[in-house]
């Protein structure tokens, strides 16, 4: 049975070209700085996003937490959105690894108000206050929305006014640049560091990149070792990452188009509620409460037909399109959901 996996774009399998590149990769011990393919990936990645240097890391969460650890001292404060990935889906790691306090700003699908950010900056030395060290933004946001470049610029101006650094959680950075139809450097020009994933929609099996200034990456490299991320012959993974960055970015627009198709077909089902304007990427969030269907039941029945989905979270279902989902798959999924309503 062929499996249709809509749980996330993290489930993507490497392409044949990636597998070939991994098989043929030149490798060496990266802790000794001996891996030529890692070096090639890091150089290419840094240039791609307009940064001085880059570092290969095992995952997006690892990259974000490494950024916090490198930018901040223990007890410092980080300002970020109340629904961002670092707050909601990284297991409280900021308190464990970097030892920082998170001060949140209300987020509108990832868009933060620069005025509200500035209000939360600790502007005075006070025996009672932590020091504000970092502002974090997320683009594309895990709600499936893309934050405007104007807002990012305004946040950066606030940060520089108060001599603060800005880190971008860009797990789906290239989805954001694709949606905005701009070069990725336009998204990263108003931040000091950026993390982006090589997996997800780009299909590499493992790995993310942390990029920034040379001195920042130099410090981050030591902290990566401290966190257990010193890898040995990691060039096998880097080889897939190079294919991802060089050949898979253009495909993201197709993933977005498939998400719109899926959303439009779901909208035709009585009781399904969703907003097409919220679909910027390859994620379709929808409410099926009024259909009478129960999330766990749908998950079970879908799996019987070879379709993997997650149950609802906060009252919403989420289907995610990616390279391995076809238009035929989309119609099959929608038809099955319709059939469950008729039973």
TrEMBL record:
The lineage of its organism: Bacteria, Bacillati, Bacillota, Clostridia, Eubacteriales. Its cofactor is pyridoxal 5'-phosphate. Residues 5-287 form the Aromatic amino acid beta-eliminating lyase/threonine aldolase domain. This is Threonine aldolase. It comes from Clostridium punense. It comes from the Bacteria. Belongs to the threonine aldolase family. Its EC number is 4.1.2.5. It is an enzyme of class 4 (lyase). Keywords: Lyase, Pyridoxal phosphate. Pfam families: Beta_elim_lyase. GO terms for molecular function: threonine aldolase activity. The keyword GTP-binding does not apply.
């Amino acid at each position: 049975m062929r499996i249709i996996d809509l749980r996330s774009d993290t489930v993507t399998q490497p392409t044949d070209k990636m597998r070939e590149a991994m098989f043929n990769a030149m490798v060496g011990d990266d802790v000794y700085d001996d891996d030529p393919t890692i070096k090639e990936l890091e150089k290419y990645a840094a240039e791609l996003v307009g940064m001085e240097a880059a570092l290969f890391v095992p995952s997006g969460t690892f990259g974000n937490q490494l950024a916090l650890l490198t930018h901040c001292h223990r007890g410092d404060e980080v300002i970020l959105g109340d629904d961002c990935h670092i707050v909601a889906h990284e297991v409280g790691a900021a308190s464990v690894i970097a030892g920082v306090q998170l001060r949140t700003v209300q987020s509108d699908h990832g868009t933060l108000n620069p005025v509200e950010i500035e209000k939360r900056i600790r502007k005075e030395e006070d025996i009672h206050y932590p020091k504000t060290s970092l502002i974090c933004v997320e683009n594309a946001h895990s709600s499936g929305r893309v934050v405007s470049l104007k807002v990012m610029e305004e946040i950066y101006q606030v940060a520089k006014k108060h001599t603060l650094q800005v880190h971008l959680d860009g797990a789906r950075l290239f989805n954001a640049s694709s949606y905005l139809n701009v070069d990725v450097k336009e998204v990263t020009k108003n931040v000091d560091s950026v993390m982006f994933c090589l997996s997800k929609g780009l299909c590499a099996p493992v790995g993310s990149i942390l990029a920034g200034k040379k001195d920042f990456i130099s410090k981050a490299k030591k902290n990566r070792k401290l966190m257990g991320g010193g890898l040995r012959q990691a060039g096998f993974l880097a080889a897939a990452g190079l294919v991802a960055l060089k050949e898979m970015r253009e495909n993201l627009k197709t993933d977005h188009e498939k998400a719109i198709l899926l959303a439009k077909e779901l909208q035709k089902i009585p009781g399904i509620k969703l907003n097409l304007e919220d679909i910027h990427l390859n994620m379709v969030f929808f409410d099926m409460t009024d259909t009478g269907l129960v999330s766990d039941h749908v998950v079970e029945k879908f799996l019987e037909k070879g379709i993997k989905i997650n149950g609802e979270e906060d009252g919403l279902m989420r289907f995610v399109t990616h390279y391995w989902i076809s238009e035929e798959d989309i119609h099959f999924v929608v038809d099955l959901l319709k059939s469950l309503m008729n039973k």
